What we know:
Elements lengths: L1 E4 L15 H23 L3 E5 L9 H11 L6 E5 L21 E3 L6 E5 L4 E5 L23 E7 L13 H5 L5 E5 L11 E3 L15 E8 L7 E8 L5 E8 L5 H15 L4 E11 L6 H10 L3 E7 L2 E3 L2 H7 L4 H9 L5 H21 L1
Parallel strand pairs: 1-2, 2-3, 3-4, 6-7, 7-8, 8-9, 12-13, 13-14, 13-15
Antiparallel strand pairs: 1-10, 5-6, 10-11
Helix pairs in contact: 4-5, 6-7, 7-8
Amino acid sequence: MRFLHAGDVHLGAEPESGTDLGPLRRNEIWETFRNIIEVCEREQVDLLLLPGDLFHGQPLLREVKEVDYLFRRLSHTKVVMCAGNHDCLLSSSHYYDVTFPEHVTFLMDSHADSVFFPELNTEVFGLSYETRQISEARYDALHCNKPERINILLAHGNILCNDKSIPLHRGVLETAGFDYVALGHLHNRPEISKRIVYSGSPEPLNRGETGAKGYILGEIKKVGTGPSEMEWEFIPCARREYVPLTLETTVYSTELSLCSELLAAVQKKGLQHMYLVTLTGTRGREVIWNTEALAELLTKQGANVIEISDETIPDFPVEKLRTEQQDTLVGRFIERMEEVESPELKKLALQYGLQALLARDERS
């Protein structure tokens, strides 16, 4: 039985809202979901598993109809889905207003339900959120009593900590008899185990979601009542990634030289990505980097630099200051720093300390 596991699609979300990228990112999330459907059809995947938060919030009726249209393009794949905390089944939900095709099963019950596919010898368990916050450990009572079947659980929650979603307990899930647990809710795909898996979100949804994003494509084989054989792989599919990028500056750096270096780095990694730049190192004492102007200059040259953080420190002439201000607080501070054993720590302490002391003198 071949399956595709795609959690937390968040249709309707608009990362980078308020910028030129916002509407584009909203459309790209829809396009990525369309591509997932196309993969299912092209590869003749048996099961598409959607463990919650297909939508970023309560979907509009026209949006649910769009998803219905995409599901109807599947000629072989069966779909099993549930609602998560973002698209929870409120009484007014437009999920109730659309009848999905027969090959789509929406596990709408707020407590454990399941669907069995005899032709796949596979039973899929799951439940839907009826409100955004649920404190009950509703998955803990689930246990598979038909070991001859392939048993799969759709579960939406946080297995790492309590964040007001349905609590998940790894030990309980590991002993419940599931061949595969398709998890949703955490977007950065933390590694749990081979059989308990977060797919993460197919597209990055905020600047904290760096790295590759995609879905899980796998296969489960089972004979008799013994353990199943399973293989799966993570398939990157995001149109863009948030990419952290660090550039070390020197006293010789200028804004134009920084722009040139950053543009070269961005071109090497891919102009389509969204870059979170951190400037480190030293700068001339008289220099203050205009990060907004630098980001704008890079954007005009085709680089999606959406954030620049300046962590540079001014480079002070320490020996000259030691001689000229030996009887002042600045001079005594420099002498005291000689007691610091770590060269790197000494350098940073000197730069930050002198920056504070000399700024105070300039204000006096």
